[in-house]
Amino acid sequence: MADTNLSAAALLAEIHSESLQSLLAAVRAESSPPGLTHIPALEAHLAASNARRTSRDWPLNRGDVIEVQGPAASGKTHFAYHMLLTCLLPEVHSDTELGGWGKAAVLVDTDGNFSVRRLHELLVSRLQRFLGEDDPKDVMTPPLEDLATRYLQNLHVFRPTSSAQLAITLLHLPKYHATEPRLQDMEIGLLVIDSMSAFYWRDRYTLEQLRDTADNSRTPLPPNPLFHVLKALAKFRISHRPVILMTNWGLNPLTKPSANGDPGSPFYRQHLHPFPAPFEPHGASDAISSIEASQSHDGDGAGRNTTAIARGSGTPHLTSSILPLHYHITLHPSPIDPFPASFSLADALRLEHMRAVLVKKGEVRGLVRTPGEDIVGEFIFRIGEREVLVDADEGP
């Protein structure tokens, strides 16, 4: 009887199973896109790349993973704000096309920089652009501020304070989705983590301390905490298929400006480990393999073991990237040339108003790349006082 039970258990273990949530997410991924970004040049690049990669004729797929990297004050958080607003807004309101996704969004604020007041301000401004100013004589239509507040109720914010808390938060999201009354009947269209680098220095210091302690010991080292974060993120990606947007610091340029004045690379090395690094020699093949696996095995990859323990180290060695990275965006504030050295103080003061106009314009340049392709797309958006402007035809 024991042998029979063991045999039955072994047979059951070989039968593939998945939750209804995973099945629904997989069906949606094959039948419809999540929505548009409404940044024309970015969408053109994404659509062309997606057509080559999947033969689909839309820019984003459910489950796409996007990394947004750049130096401090380069517009990463405001790009995330733009994507959050696009997800939260409905497609249509009162017969007016808003172009939103009409879905819930989750923001994991690890940097502590998220401002709900700023997001509300941006949302009200966008509604004014589409619906016009409030009419004080119209008592039947809710004020735009109230409408914006209603849409923001579909945003769910978490603030972990360590990599361990971040991993646990991501592991808990499916249960939160199933039990939170404001969320359980909605699809999570977008998951934003701002930023993946928030705990980088703390985790690096901890690992170096452990490494120093273990130098004369055979005790294996624990994996980098980021490993557990990526594993939890990959699991949630497969079960729910949101578009995942992760911001990341730009610390080390690929090449620095030369002494003879040649500009450095606009791109940055990947300082996080383990993390997809598709544009660097050591990570290119793993990143491409991970994307290919995600396209053909998305339904059964959640429980797949992608690691092996390096002998004597205890550190997971990736046989393929834990998380696929479909697009990488690098952001830079548009440069403002300094005054020539020959300028006098009077000349600088006379022309300062021209520089002030450029600064106030808040223009950000984005470079978008797709792993496995040499094409680099470029787009521009502007961070205004009360709105994020994503189209060249939009005025300040």
The succession of helices and strands, N to C, reads HHHEHEEEHHEHEHHEHEEEHEEE
Q: Provide the structure class.
A: alpha/beta
* Count of strand segments: 13
Q: Any idea what the shape is? A: globular
Unreliable stretches: 299-320
Distance between the termini: 77 Å
Helical region count?
11
What integer value in Å does the Rg equal? 24 Å
Q: Name the helicity range.
A: 25-40%
What is the residue-mean pLDDT, rounded to a whole number?
84
> Widest sheet: strand order?
5-4-6-7-1-10-11-12-13
Question: Biggest β-sheet, characterized?
Answer: 9 strands, mixed
The percentage of residues in β strands lies in 15-25%
Protein described:
- The chain has 396 residues and is α/β, with parallel strands linked by helices.
- The chain is 39% helix and 16% strand.
- It contains eleven helices and 13 strands.
- It has helices at residues 2-13, 20-31, 40-54, 76-88, 116-131, 144-152, 163-179, 200-214, 225-240, 284-297, 345-361, and strands at residues 65-70, 92-93, 96-97, 104-109, 155-158, 188-194, 243-249, 307-309, 316-318, 327-333, 363-369, 376-383, 388-389.
- A nine-stranded mixed β-sheet has the order 5-4-6-7-1-10-11-12-13, sandwiched between helices.
- A hairpin with a 2-residue loop joins β2 and β3 (96-97).
- α5 packs across α6 and α7 (163-179) runs parallel beside α9.
- The longest helix is centred in the middle third of the chain and has 17 residues, at 163-179.
- The protein is globular and about 85 Å long.
- The N and C termini lie far apart (77 Å).
